[in-house]
Amino acid sequence: MRQRTEGQASTAPGVPGSETAPLAEPTTPRPPLPPKPDQGTPEPVSPTGQDTGIDPTLNAQGGEHLTTAHGSRRADTDHSLKAGRRGPVLLQDHHFREKISHFDHERIPERVVHARGAGAHGVFRSYGTASRISSAAVFGKDVETPVFVRFSTVLGSRGSADLARDTRGFATKFYTSEGTWDLVGNNIPVFFIQDAIKFPDVIHAGKPHPDREIPQAQSAHDTFWDFVSLHTEAQHHTIWNMSDRGIPRSYRTMEGFGVHTFRLVDDAGRSVLVKFHWKPKLGVHSVLWEEAQIAMGMDPDVHRRDLADAIEAGAHPEWELGVQVFEDNEEQVFEGIDLLDPTKIVPEELAPVEPVGLMTLNRNPSNYFAETEQVAFNPNNLVRGIDVTNDPLLQGRLFSYLDTQLSRLGGPNWTQLPINRPHAPVNDMLRDGMHQTAVHSGVAPYHPNSLDGNNPFPADEPARPFIDHPDPVAESVKERGNPVTFEDHYTQTRLFWLSMSDVEKEHIAQAYTFELGKCWEQAVKERQLQALANIDEKLCAVVAQGLGLPAPKPTVKHGRIKPSPALSQVGGQWPLDGRQVGIVVDPDPDENDLLAVVSAIDDAGMVPLVIAPHGGPVGRGGKVVAHRTYLTARSVEFDSVLVAGAVPPAPDARQGLDAKAGAVAPGGVDPRVHLLLGEVFRQAKAIGTWGAKGQVLTAAGLPEGAPGVVSGKDAAAVVEQVVTLMKSHRAWERFPVSGRL
């Protein structure tokens, strides 16, 4: 449920500053504005992990007057120093040179992958259940640990759109009392490759073509499908991307996975193998491909905005961290599944996910660059009781993540950036380097030494050091290759397919048809069709028909495969915290009626957004303010739409003023509203209206009695029914199913 703090918006979030801006340029000096109530900053710890107790806002700019970087006050920052007002700019203008030079160097190299992201601060509270299998302090009962989470797309650049069909990164930095632990995962539990040596290959294949630098943030092109159709271990991850999981509704409604198998160790040295899962309290939900395409044009920042707005509105997103636990034996195989193969899952029906704690994200960053852009994750960041396994992809990541920070953040001292600083004392022997901010004392940064009293002293067992688990290494020879248990590339791909509902299967088939339809090379299409035939003949036939190609016969035989219902997103009732409800009104709404509807939606933990013919106050009393207009509103913003007015065409309902006004709108309905309702209906979202306003739905061509469409005499009753429908995410019965799959 939404948890508002004093000063937070009661309805629509998104206000840019912590104070309302005046119309005229302010002329009285004043200190910088504080962060908004929903914003936070990294904890005030020193470069060596000591709690400084300093107000974290003091790390930002201070004082009332403009200064240079070295603190010299300046009276003018609008004009460069010239030899006369029409003369040349003088080289001695230090302020100009400093300002321009710093601007020229503001950007740092973007991440090679996961460049586009969004982040938030929060807290992880342990249930204590994992303390029986791990000595990590973070898993102690009721222990609360600060966290920073960064969500991201994989392929796109920093300026790409949020809703591209792609895997999403889900990286969590735990600032534990024993050092930083980074759990660096994705929203998909498997990966394209089994060995890290193939990582440059899969990313080069997925990135834009090197000759034209297109397409951006897409897999619908020849090089991607050329790679995955040849490198068939990628087929399992690919079908997840082609499913609705590839276009999530929100970061708040994504699962997260550690992907690899990790090792937990208790104080006695006993170990188990685990897979980490993040389970969103709001459920796992996605958008439709139509919604994704509209959103990428109307609001390419839709996921960033959704996360920040939800936190600002007090709808703090929550995830339970859970583990699947396996015996740590020599084979490291469970029910025939090799636990070291990152292209495989263990179905939850075989190994249930045991909850171990709850993460709540409750503060937005105060500065995107300083926090979300400069945060650096590293799978090497482990603490006592948590260790890695010999998963060959994980082993390669242990090198790659450390290596990439050296170039991206300009040297080895990236851990001293405020967002990356541990919340535990740091006493290492690492010295100097670019951007060193710690002022080290002593003369002997080596071990052993006598000049500094042999400090830092290696930690003994009472000091709880990290211990590398003594994992036995089987007698073998040096060679390149994978174990035989890695060779099955299709059984689990088919398992995923069989676990989908009919609607989800239709979406997967459409996605394959769309993506392969964007490829030029016939051989690439035919090769991938063969892979699809090895997954499911019906799936292959539907996609082949869409491509106008013959469907090949499978070359792989499958035994009986039991579906995993946990993989489907359809079904269940879910909380509605932070969901957005559009309320369409006419120029003169019944204000009391409208205020009651707004209040009911607000009380349900959702965000009511009034959609009016124009901006500003709506109606005669001025009690209601429009959040969107017919011009600015589009279906992808809303999880449901209520019609609270007759909505006749507004004065700007002309195609020359708004292209959306070109829609056909019979019955005297504004064409933009007609378009909105048509899209919302196709997207199987709940729609409600009451009283005589039901004629608007009829005029918009919505069939009476359709699933998820509510009409009634009383607004309160209609809203109550719509809220109930929304808990299922969509009116799934509204989707046509071809029966071909």
UniProtKB/TrEMBL annotation:
Keywords: Heme, Hydrogen peroxide, Iron, Metal-binding, Oxidoreductase, Peroxidase
Cofactor: heme
SMART domains with a match to the protein in the record: Catalase (SM01060)
The enzyme's E.C. designation: 1.11.1.6
Stretch list, region Disordered: 1-89
Annotated heme binding sites: 111, 150, 199, 397, 401, 408
Gene Ontology MF terms in the entry: catalase activity; heme binding; metal ion binding
PROSITE patterns to which the protein is assigned, alphabetical: CATALASE_1 (PS00437), CATALASE_2 (PS00438), CATALASE_3 (PS51402)
Domain of life: Bacteria
Composition-biased stretches (Pro residues): 28-37
Pfam families: Catalase, Catalase-rel, Catalase_C
The Catalase core domain, residue ranges: 67-455
Keyword Cell membrane in record: no
Catalytic residue positions: 114, 186
Functional summary from the UniProt entry: Decomposes hydrogen peroxide into water and oxygen; serves to protect cells from the toxic effects of hydrogen peroxide.
Family as reported in the entry's similarity comment: Belongs to the catalase family. HPII subfamily.
Name of this protein: Catalase
Organism encoding this protein: Kocuria rosea (Deinococcus erythromyxa)
